[in-house]
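Q: How would the C-alpha coordinates look for this protein?
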Amino acid sequence: MGGQRDENTNIVRFLQDETQRLQHESVELQEENAYLRECLRSIRGIQRALSNVEARGQLKPLLDRIIYEALRMVDAADGSLSLVDEEAQEVMFVVVRGTLQDQLEGFRTPMDEGLVGWVIAHEEPAISNDIRQDARFSPVIDVRFGFQTQSLICVPLISRKKVLGVIEVVNKFSGRPFDERDLDMLSVLGLSAAAAIDLAGFQCDEAANPDA
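A: Here is the predicted structure in C-alpha coordinate form.
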Protein backbone atom coordinates (compact mmCIF):
# COMPACT_ATOMS: atom_id res chain seq x y z
CA MET A 1 0.00 0.00 0.00
CA GLY A 2 2.85 2.37 0.88
CA GLY A 3 4.41 1.96 -2.54
CA GLN A 4 1.11 2.69 -4.29
CA ARG A 5 0.59 5.78 -2.16
CA ASP A 6 4.10 7.06 -2.98
CA GLU A 7 3.47 6.47 -6.67
CA ASN A 8 0.17 8.36 -6.53
CA THR A 9 1.91 11.21 -4.69
CA ASN A 10 4.60 11.38 -7.37
CA ILE A 11 1.97 11.45 -10.09
CA VAL A 12 0.11 14.30 -8.34
CA ARG A 13 3.35 16.27 -7.96
CA PHE A 14 4.22 15.69 -11.60
CA LEU A 15 0.80 16.91 -12.70
CA GLN A 16 1.08 19.97 -10.46
CA ASP A 17 4.51 20.82 -11.84
CA GLU A 18 3.33 20.30 -15.40
CA THR A 19 0.29 22.51 -14.79
CA GLN A 20 2.53 25.28 -13.42
CA ARG A 21 4.87 24.93 -16.39
CA LEU A 22 2.02 25.20 -18.88
CA GLN A 23 0.57 28.20 -17.06
CA HIS A 24 3.98 29.89 -17.17
CA GLU A 25 4.31 29.17 -20.90
CA SER A 26 0.82 30.52 -21.47
CA VAL A 27 1.71 33.79 -19.75
CA GLU A 28 4.91 34.06 -21.81
CA LEU A 29 2.97 33.46 -25.04
CA GLN A 30 0.41 36.11 -24.11
CA GLU A 31 3.20 38.61 -23.40
CA GLU A 32 4.93 37.72 -26.68
CA ASN A 33 1.70 38.15 -28.64
CA ALA A 34 1.05 41.51 -27.00
CA TYR A 35 4.60 42.62 -27.85
CA LEU A 36 4.24 41.51 -31.48
CA ARG A 37 0.92 43.32 -31.84
CA GLU A 38 2.52 46.48 -30.48
CA CYS A 39 5.44 46.07 -32.88
CA LEU A 40 3.10 45.73 -35.84
CA ARG A 41 1.14 48.80 -34.75
CA SER A 42 4.33 50.84 -34.57
CA ILE A 43 5.62 49.60 -37.91
CA ARG A 44 2.31 50.28 -39.66
CA GLY A 45 2.30 53.84 -38.33
CA ILE A 46 5.86 54.42 -39.50
CA GLN A 47 5.13 52.94 -42.92
CA ARG A 48 2.13 55.25 -43.32
CA ALA A 49 4.28 58.22 -42.36
CA LEU A 50 7.01 57.05 -44.74
CA SER A 51 4.57 56.94 -47.66
CA ASN A 52 3.75 60.61 -47.03
CA VAL A 53 7.34 61.85 -46.99
CA GLU A 54 7.38 63.98 -50.10
CA ALA A 55 9.87 66.65 -49.04
CA ARG A 56 13.14 66.61 -47.14
CA GLY A 57 11.67 68.91 -44.52
CA GLN A 58 9.26 66.13 -43.55
CA LEU A 59 12.01 63.57 -42.99
CA LYS A 60 13.52 64.61 -39.68
CA PRO A 61 10.19 64.36 -37.78
CA LEU A 62 9.80 60.83 -39.20
CA LEU A 63 13.31 59.87 -38.07
CA ASP A 64 12.54 61.28 -34.64
CA ARG A 65 9.44 59.12 -34.49
CA ILE A 66 11.46 56.05 -35.46
CA ILE A 67 13.86 56.67 -32.57
CA TYR A 68 10.92 57.23 -30.23
CA GLU A 69 9.39 53.91 -31.28
CA ALA A 70 12.77 52.17 -30.99
CA LEU A 71 13.20 53.32 -27.39
CA ARG A 72 9.62 52.48 -26.49
CA MET A 73 9.73 48.98 -27.93
CA VAL A 74 13.03 47.95 -26.34
CA ASP A 75 12.39 49.85 -23.07
CA ALA A 76 15.53 51.95 -23.35
CA ALA A 77 16.41 55.36 -21.98
CA ASP A 78 18.58 56.90 -24.68
CA GLY A 79 18.92 56.57 -28.42
CA SER A 80 20.08 58.29 -31.56
CA LEU A 81 20.17 58.19 -35.33
CA SER A 82 23.41 59.25 -37.02
CA LEU A 83 24.26 59.86 -40.65
CA VAL A 84 27.51 59.01 -42.41
CA ASP A 85 29.42 61.90 -43.97
CA GLU A 86 31.72 60.06 -46.36
CA GLU A 87 33.54 63.17 -47.52
CA ALA A 88 34.53 64.14 -43.98
CA GLN A 89 34.84 60.51 -42.88
CA GLU A 90 32.62 61.32 -39.91
CA VAL A 91 29.31 60.33 -38.37
CA MET A 92 26.90 63.08 -37.29
CA PHE A 93 24.14 62.73 -34.69
CA VAL A 94 20.99 63.85 -36.49
CA VAL A 95 18.24 62.75 -34.08
CA VAL A 96 18.87 62.22 -30.36
CA ARG A 97 16.46 61.32 -27.58
CA GLY A 98 17.24 61.08 -23.90
CA THR A 99 19.76 62.61 -21.52
CA LEU A 100 22.14 64.04 -24.10
CA GLN A 101 19.63 65.31 -26.66
CA ASP A 102 20.66 68.96 -26.46
CA GLN A 103 24.39 68.24 -26.39
CA LEU A 104 24.62 65.53 -29.03
CA GLU A 105 22.46 66.72 -31.92
CA GLY A 106 24.88 67.92 -34.59
CA PHE A 107 27.90 66.42 -32.82
CA ARG A 108 30.35 64.51 -35.01
CA THR A 109 32.70 61.60 -34.38
CA PRO A 110 35.19 59.81 -36.66
CA MET A 111 33.49 57.26 -38.89
CA ASP A 112 35.80 54.46 -37.77
CA GLU A 113 35.46 55.08 -34.03
CA GLY A 114 33.78 52.86 -31.45
CA LEU A 115 31.04 50.30 -31.86
CA VAL A 116 29.31 52.56 -34.39
CA GLY A 117 32.44 52.50 -36.52
CA TRP A 118 32.57 48.71 -36.27
CA VAL A 119 28.93 48.44 -37.39
CA ILE A 120 29.55 50.74 -40.36
CA ALA A 121 32.70 48.88 -41.41
CA HIS A 122 31.14 45.42 -41.10
CA GLU A 123 27.67 46.45 -42.32
CA GLU A 124 26.02 44.38 -39.61
CA PRO A 125 24.34 45.06 -36.25
CA ALA A 126 25.95 44.59 -32.87
CA ILE A 127 24.89 44.10 -29.25
CA SER A 128 27.19 44.80 -26.33
CA ASN A 129 25.89 44.12 -22.82
CA ASP A 130 29.28 44.37 -21.10
CA ILE A 131 30.49 47.55 -22.68
CA ARG A 132 33.58 48.03 -20.52
CA GLN A 133 34.91 44.66 -21.64
CA ASP A 134 34.16 45.30 -25.32
CA ALA A 135 37.26 46.43 -27.22
CA ARG A 136 35.02 47.94 -29.91
CA PHE A 137 33.56 50.51 -27.51
CA SER A 138 34.89 54.06 -27.42
CA PRO A 139 34.36 56.05 -24.18
CA VAL A 140 34.74 59.44 -25.92
CA ILE A 141 31.05 60.42 -25.61
CA ASP A 142 30.82 59.21 -22.02
CA VAL A 143 33.93 61.14 -20.97
CA ARG A 144 33.09 64.34 -22.83
CA PHE A 145 29.46 64.57 -21.69
CA GLY A 146 29.61 62.81 -18.33
CA PHE A 147 27.42 59.94 -19.52
CA GLN A 148 27.61 56.29 -18.45
CA THR A 149 26.95 53.64 -21.08
CA GLN A 150 26.09 50.26 -19.57
CA SER A 151 24.79 48.39 -22.60
CA LEU A 152 24.42 49.23 -26.25
CA ILE A 153 22.73 47.99 -29.40
CA CYS A 154 23.50 49.41 -32.83
CA VAL A 155 22.09 48.67 -36.29
CA PRO A 156 23.27 49.99 -39.68
CA LEU A 157 20.95 51.88 -42.00
CA ILE A 158 21.59 50.26 -45.36
CA SER A 159 20.00 51.12 -48.68
CA ARG A 160 21.17 49.90 -52.07
CA LYS A 161 24.17 48.18 -50.43
CA LYS A 162 25.38 51.43 -48.89
CA VAL A 163 25.53 52.31 -45.18
CA LEU A 164 23.79 55.66 -44.76
CA GLY A 165 23.94 55.81 -40.99
CA VAL A 166 23.20 53.97 -37.76
CA ILE A 167 20.55 53.67 -35.07
CA GLU A 168 22.05 53.39 -31.60
CA VAL A 169 20.11 52.54 -28.43
CA VAL A 170 21.66 52.68 -24.95
CA ASN A 171 20.77 51.40 -21.47
CA LYS A 172 17.48 49.65 -20.77
CA PHE A 173 15.36 51.18 -18.01
CA SER A 174 15.16 47.75 -16.38
CA GLY A 175 18.91 47.25 -16.49
CA ARG A 176 18.36 43.98 -18.33
CA PRO A 177 20.57 43.06 -21.30
CA PHE A 178 19.56 43.66 -24.89
CA ASP A 179 18.59 40.49 -26.75
CA GLU A 180 17.86 39.17 -30.22
CA ARG A 181 14.23 40.31 -30.04
CA ASP A 182 15.43 43.87 -29.49
CA LEU A 183 17.83 43.49 -32.40
CA ASP A 184 15.08 42.23 -34.71
CA MET A 185 12.83 45.17 -33.82
CA LEU A 186 15.55 47.76 -34.36
CA SER A 187 16.57 46.13 -37.64
CA VAL A 188 13.01 46.50 -38.97
CA LEU A 189 12.88 50.14 -37.88
CA GLY A 190 16.30 50.62 -39.47
CA LEU A 191 14.95 49.46 -42.80
CA SER A 192 12.25 52.15 -42.66
CA ALA A 193 14.75 54.81 -41.67
CA ALA A 194 17.18 53.84 -44.44
CA ALA A 195 14.40 53.85 -47.03
CA ALA A 196 13.24 57.30 -45.93
CA ILE A 197 16.76 58.78 -45.92
CA ASP A 198 17.52 57.32 -49.35
CA LEU A 199 14.18 58.42 -50.77
CA ALA A 200 14.67 62.00 -49.61
CA GLY A 201 18.38 62.11 -50.47
CA PHE A 202 19.00 63.49 -46.98
CA GLN A 203 22.56 64.65 -46.26
CA CYS A 204 24.49 65.68 -43.14
CA ASP A 205 24.66 69.34 -44.17
CA GLU A 206 20.88 69.45 -44.55
CA ALA A 207 20.43 67.85 -41.14
CA ALA A 208 22.70 70.48 -39.60
CA ASN A 209 20.91 73.30 -41.45
CA PRO A 210 17.29 72.16 -41.94
CA ASP A 211 16.12 75.64 -43.05
CA ALA A 212 18.87 76.07 -45.62
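The chain has a mean pLDDT of 82.

The longest strand covers residues 162-172.

Upvote if useful.
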